[in-house]
Amino acid sequence: MDILDGRVATSKAAYTAPETSPLKALAEMTVDCTVREALLVDEGDIITGGGVSLCVDLTLYLLERFLGPELAARTAHIMEYSAARAANQARLPSLIKPIHAKS
Prior knowledge:
This protein has helices spanning 22-29, 54-67, 69-78, 82-91, and strands at 8-9, 34-35, 40-42, 47-49, 94-96. It is an alpha/beta fold. Strands 4-3-5 form a 3-stranded mixed beta sheet, with helices on one face. The protein has a two-stranded parallel ribbon with strand order 1-2. The mean pLDDT is 92.
């Protein structure tokens, strides 16, 4: 059994030949995983991010999930990442299981 069986996951989407598509490679490496292009996927106990710079967004999401939206927003502001975060959130979906969704 693969750790991602029955789950949704993401990886880096952009690539340049001769590199193989990371999303395609992830789909080929897993048996029963739905691979989607996304900012992040929160499956509860496993959270995947959509790429190298999007891992900054993933880190901010974790701050928000565990420590609150104010801290995440302040951290993004201090990093001068607020605009990039907003642009990434507008461009890509965040796939969050309902138990972890913000109310």
